């Protein structure tokens, strides 16, 4: 297996006042390329914390994270910014689409902002909007789209810079069951067709069971199951 993500001996402690909270410790795992990985755990078990550390948005207290052979804690600020823009695609529970831009403009923005010529960014954004099944809605503004459609635009936006790893933090947390399944199946299809690895946080056991690798946080530790459930 070609490891895309290598996490070893990860520990996160938060300080609030004089209290220390150990969220997790001794967390080690590897994820290959093109894998559909789910992460579950009770509220407060540290799922978002783990995603933020892997995504270069937060630092571990101990341990190391390597993605694509690069050790995140050794990156300069500029390398870290590039890493977040180019290597990682983020999808959050709230889509954070910009309301004054159309769907296709929202999707192309991260590419345009990181220097891709406008026409090339737009063409790839149009293809991604097709990929998420919204070709006929690309000139719509977020307020003219349903919650599920908005989240599919956010998925397309996460793909614009050809990331190797998508970090999705409860992307269906705000959607009804039908739309949750549509968005999750879309993410699974992206893993197959675009060759990205997906790390998906979900509270929904049915969606979690869809993972080829299933991670679970609990009691400060991580457990790993591989193979089809
Ligand atoms: N900046 C912070 N300072 C102090 N404590 C924090 C901070 N961020 C998170 N925590 C605490 O760390 C623990 C893990 O939080 P985290 O958000 O990672 O959990 P989670 O599993 O994603 O929860 P949920 O399912 O509710 O989103 C929680 O107890 C939380 O209160």
Write up this protein.
The chain has 229 residues and is of the alpha/beta class. The chain has a single domain, classed as P-loop containing nucleotide triphosphate hydrolases (Rossmann fold, 3-Layer(aba) Sandwich). Helix content is 34%, strand content 30%. The protein has seven helices and ten strands. Strands 6-7-8-3-9-10 form a six-stranded mixed β-sheet, with helices on both faces. The protein has a four-stranded antiparallel β-sheet with strand order 2-1-4-5, with helices on one face. Strand 9 and strand 10 (221-226) form a beta hairpin. Helix 3 crosses helix 4, helix 3 (103-113) runs parallel beside helix 5 (147-159) and helix 4 crosses helix 5. The longest helix is centred in the last third of the chain and has 18 residues, at 177-194. The chain starts with a strand and ends with a strand. Adenosine-5'-triphosphate binds next to strand 1, strand 2 and helix 1. It comes from Sediminispirochaeta smaragdinae (strain DSM 11293 / JCM 15392 / SEBR 4228). It holds the Pfam family ABC_tran. Residues 5-229 form the ABC transporter domain. One of its GO terms (cellular component) is membrane protein complex. GO terms for molecular function: ATP binding; ATP hydrolysis activity; transmembrane transporter activity.
